[in-house]
Write a structure and sequence with these properties.
Elements: E1 2-6, H1 11-14, H2 18-26, E2 30-35, H3 40-44, E3 49-52, H4 57-66, H5 78-107, E4 111-115, H6 119-128, E5 132-135, H7 146-161, E6 176-179, E7 195-198, E8 221-225, H8 233-243, E9 249-253, E10 269-272, H9 277-280, E11 286-289, H10 293-301, E12 305-308, H11 315-325, E13 328-330, H12 338-350, H13 352-366, H14 371-376, H15 378-381
Parallel strand pairs: 1-2, 1-4, 2-3, 4-5, 5-6, 6-7, 8-9, 8-11, 9-10, 11-12, 12-13
């Protein structure tokens, strides 16, 4: 089969699709991975053929704000939600749909596998009459939530402008979901028109020549990150202040924040801009993070307890789900203090109940169909079921 994978150009959106794309390529299918410039070189490093399409998230936010679609005072709590909704629900779908339309015309694929937030990929597939399967990177959209409303309200205009019917029900376009979220963390989906194909989450990162090693101190190793987008250095500082009160070693991945802002830390803290997270996760005792889907699912895959400090988007829902299951805790906004981080981390490192819950999630994921199994069964999910 000739297959186009497409995803928003952010690690948390595109990296979860790589394992299946590689498995299908290894099985002899012709794979093109279509994404924007920011992650194209990293995806290419996986040995996949890459086509640059669409627009990166940063410029999409800028365009949304310039158009006035995110026209809320930048200091308002609504600003990021409105601007993000316009970027993901309008700017990026139009840009991806246009570029992918041309790519589809050239390559004539048999199937589009579109990451669930890449609405432009789903639009392009619909316009071309190509079967489309949606690949999740975490929990599905929570229908009726502020995030869902912010994205799908402008997206309705995109569909109307392109002559496509309005989205109804709890899902976007496409005939099936490849769903990497374990059932215990998943949003309850009622009357979804799409088939659901469970797929074991498999963390992936670009190959690297070196990676940090677990310190030989024998102390718990704690991973601290706010992902690749957030620039909230103050939250990282607060988390460090709390964590360094404990007898632990810490690996800090600064992401979008320059490591130069963290040069005055104790020797127990190692600072890196980027780390090969997928390769390291199994070695940690605790993951303190923003609640991004990639980190949430990766930590769950390895049975790790999680302290979540959500900053935006789907992170609040992820934090709520993990906390409700008992595999972690979350701290939000003003509740993030050095004292609260210290206390939460101490509890998570020592609680048998929390560790048992985290292991339960890992076992749930372990029995989901593997990437190899799902790739081998492509004939059953690649086309819409016939009545």
């Amino acid at each position: 089969m000739r297959i186009i994978f497409t995803a928003i150009g952010q690690p948390g959106h595109s990296f979860p699709l790589v394992p299946l794309a590689k498995e299908l390529a290894d099985a002899g299918h012709e794979i093109t991975f279509a994404t924007s410039a920011q992650v194209a070189p990293q995806i290419s490093a996986a040995g996949l053929r890459v086509a640059e399409v669409g627009i990166d998230v940063g410029p999409a936010f800028g365009e949304a704000i310039a158009r006035g679609q995110g026209a809320v005072d930048a200091s308002s709590p609504e600003f990021e939600l409105r601007a993000g909704g316009a970027a993901f629900g309008d700017v990026m779908p139009r840009a991806f749909a246009a570029d992918l339309g041309r790519l589809i015309e050239r390559e004539r694929p048999d199937l589009i596998v579109a990451e669930m937030a890449c609405l432009g990929g789903q639009v392009a597939a619909s316009l071309a009459g190509v079967p489309c399967v949606i690949h999740t990177f975490g929990r599905r959209f929570d229908v009726g939530s502020p995030l869902h409303t912010a994205i799908f309200t402008p997206f309705a205009s995109v569909l109307e402008d392109m002559g496509l019917p309005a989205v109804s029900g709890p899902g976007p376009l496409g005939h099936a979901y490849l769903d990497v979220c374990p059932p215990s963390l998943q949003i309850s989906v009622l009357d979804a028109p799409q088939a659901s194909v469970p797929l074991q989450t498999t963390a992936w990162n670009p190959p690297v020549s070196t990676r940090p090693s677990r310190p030989k101190s024998g102390r718990p190793w704690v991973y601290l990150t706010l992902g690749t987008v957030s620039q909230n250095a103050a939250v990282l500082r607060t988390a460090i202040d709390g964590l360094t009160r404990l007898d632990v070693d810490i690996l800090l991945a600064t992401g979008a924040i320059s490591p130069a802002e963290f040069t005055d830390l104790p020797d127990s803290v190692r600072v890196e801009a980027f780390v090969p997270q997928a390769e390291l996760l199994r070695d940690f005792s605790l993951v303190v993070h923003h609640g991004g889907s990639g980190t949430t699912m990766g930590a769950a895959q390895h049975g790790l307890v999680q302290l979540m400090l959500p900053q935006g988007a789907d992170q609040f829902g992820n934090a709520e789900a993990v906390s409700a299951f008992g595999a972690g805790q979350s701290l939000i906004g003003p509740d993030v203090t050095a004292d609260s981080v210290e206390q939460a981390a101490r509890t998570l490192l020592t609680s048998t109940a929390v560790h048992d819950a985290a292991q339960g999630l890992a076992q749930e994921i372990a029995v989901m169909p593997s990437v190899k199994a799902v790739a081998g069964d492509i004939a059953s999910w690649s086309v819409p079921s016939r009545p």
